[in-house]
Input
Amino acid sequence: MRYHSLEVKIGMLKIGGKNPVCLQSMTNTPTMNTRATVDQAIRMIEAGSALVRITAQGPKEAAHLQVIKGQLKALGYNVPLIADIHYSPEAAEIAAGIVEKVRINPGNYVDRPNSAKVNYSDSEYEAELEKISKSLAPLLSICKEYGTAIRIGVNHGSLSQRIVDRYGDTPEGMVQSALEFTRICHKQGFHNLVLSMKSSNVRVMVSAYLMLAEKLMAEGLNYPLHLGVTEAGDGEDGRLKSVAGIGALLARGIGDTIRVSLTEDPEFELPVARAIADRFHQVNEKGEIVRMIRPDLLVSRETDYCRETSACGNIGGKNPVAVLIRQNGQYFIADEENNVSPLHSLVLFIDETMVADKLPDLLSQLSTNPEMVILAEAGADKLRMLDKALFQNEIKNPLILKSPVVCNSTQEMLLENSLNPGNLLIDGIGSGICIDASEVPLTDAIRIGFGLLQATRMRISRTEFIACPSCGRTLFNIQETLQQVKARTGHLKGLKIGVMGCIVNGPGEMADADYGYVGAGNGKVNLYKGKVPVKRGVPESEAVEALVELIKENGDWIGE
Output
């Protein structure tokens, strides 16, 4: 599927259409701290951020954006600003007369995520849509007057009760939430729109964008799309999630702006975002940067099946999805403790040319050799073609996926493998991956291999941390806190633990977490078991140990 977006303007910046993919990030300083916010915005801009987002949690913060904008301009920085709005239409309307773009979340702008109302009748549902239309009208009027753009930013986990009641807390619910607001804007003659579908679950995020893109195209509402995996965490895990999710969509021609959300200083997000975008750009003969999907990353066919495999030794069948390592011309299978052992299975190596030119012969050979493991090194489309052919011919040999790109550094290995075969893993394709460790340390290759399987939900081998990048609403040092939580709980394989800066999006965005640590303001923390707050107002100095005790009380603790 190729998504052909309309072009819109954010200030003097054009996005969508044939324009290059645009990078952005968000400040995490208190909005009222002018110096800190301006300084951080400058660091972001100089790192490559073409747009700067700033939280405006209330009218006071929204009005203060004028001061921040003025100081940036006085220093020679004219990058468009985005006001991030939750709950406060008044703040949105103030900001719309100041900044170039306003981001609103349908789940909490008019509706509320935890409304007591359930079981909406059709007439009640339509009445709510009419209420939304009336509530949006003032903002749309101001945006028309000032030329301000709007991003309809849907977050998985913070959907309104009305949407959840009808569609569930699902990708479809996310899409319907965005469509409702988009149709209202369109009907009222407002077209300077951008949309996004954010989730910390890479599979949910990709699924939601694919569904949204299809429905927008069908209705002629194909506005630009902003991509990101929200609450991705930090370090390699955050980068694996972000590259895999964003890359899987850019490989389909979907996405016009991107943000890599890391629990790190925002300027560190930009090099990762640039590295992703560079793989979907080229420089033309005029020296201009133009969009181009690198051939080995292109995805032109979707998966509409689930292929069963038979076990060949400890690969395929009911075995865990495998991490194979290629080193010095030999193949090894890795375990979760960083040990490797020689691969004893009979392997049939297949490359891009063989898939393109000799597929019938390969299928014939495999049909009489069910004990063979297939090791395929090819572009994403050829790997998909191969897997579909195996399914159609009822061939159950395990398929190991390998990137065709030779990587000379750990960073390059992370990026390339997250893009391909990462996009196939997201779709549930593959009995394993093979990482080439010829030019990188063996331990790096193993760690990234298992990290990618975890990021794509193919194999869980460690604790998963769902952590927000923080913003001006966060009242504690979330980076430091995340490291403390990791140090105490990083051995709890399979548990999902959320570390969130505030209660605005925190409880919703960590909705599938087993436990949660959520800032409650004024040095206090709320602790969650699943979606339920079970300990409120815990002093921040005691909160990490209180979280450990909560895990122990519920029987999910194992010895360190």
